[in-house]
Task: structure prediction
Amino acid sequence: MHPRLGRTAGILVALIVPLALAAVVGVALTWPSGEAQTERELTDSEVTFHAARVISTQVEMCEGSVEDRRPDGTVPSEVECLRVAAQVSGGEFAGQQVEVWATAGVVAGDLPPGTRVMLERYPAMDDEPEVWAWQDFDRALPLAALALAFALVTVLVAGLRGLRALLGLVFAFAIIGTYMLPGLVAGASPLIVTLAGSIVIMVVVLYVAHGLSLRTSTALLGTMLGLAVTTVLGVIGANAARLSGVASEDSYQLSLLLGEHGATALRGLFLCGVVLAGLGVLNDVTITQASAVWELRAADPDADRRTLFSRAMRIGRDHIASTVYTIVFAYMGASLPILLLVQLYGLPLRITITGGFFAEEIVRTLVGSIGLVLAIPLTTAIAALVATTAEPSRHRVTEGHHHHH
Result:
């Protein structure tokens, strides 16, 4: 091993290991305990969910309800309702035939015989008989098929690296599901939960997908810097714009359900959302920039740091230009229903945009984008430094293999 290569690797290790360790300690200290979960049985514990298949449907007239309200605000006295006869597919009630009313908006054409649906069963109480109610379509099969298709395509096109990326994704979901979300619910510090969780995810995901190398370590360091910028700006942005996190009906309900942790948990949720939204794209740009520097270095081993940096930044600028679109359009796509509502209500643009929900999306998008744009020169600078120090010119060293002439 070239002595300078050893020193560079040493410096990278000295920077990354303490950060990763701090994150692991943070996770350990704020890991949600078991008892926090059991107190919160929010749903009616008696209600059970059952898969069923539609046998037949029948349209009948029934009394209008709030769901059927017309645009002018009146509720019609009679509306068409859909009565669904279904047979429970599994469990203790397998084979039992039940009748339920489908929710407003579901028409007979949506429910040909054999359609898989989910039903709710409310057990018999005191003198009330048991009640079966419509829950939703059973979408397990199509969703599982799509997920399988995604996994297959990823592995077929990207091979082993694709498989490793999928494993990293599974790990990331596990951390979010077992640590970050329960931690926020239990009232742990949102800042620690978000940062510690994100760093642990990034360390594992990057090394699993891209292997242990100077290149990956450089990208990881760039990602951590980008994360730090995003988190700090997220806190500043949320405070400056007075974002409480209670913008939509869902989040309001959430704050009520969370009780005394409600307000902090929602602010934390906003911060967590900002950082998680930035994670994927950050990882994307930092890996690309690190790779670009190494490839440029391989193509011209005599290039000095400044040349490498300015060449790689040309690629980086293209990347920034396209990624900004990625982020903004992803958010636009996600909030289309709200955009349509705004269109229909015809509120003045300024009122709409500065209102709670949009303000949150705007702060989220802008904070994420700033963190992202700054991560590119930071990563490029670190990569140029590492690539030139690790491989002094005239020594052609491809990653991990030394050629002795």
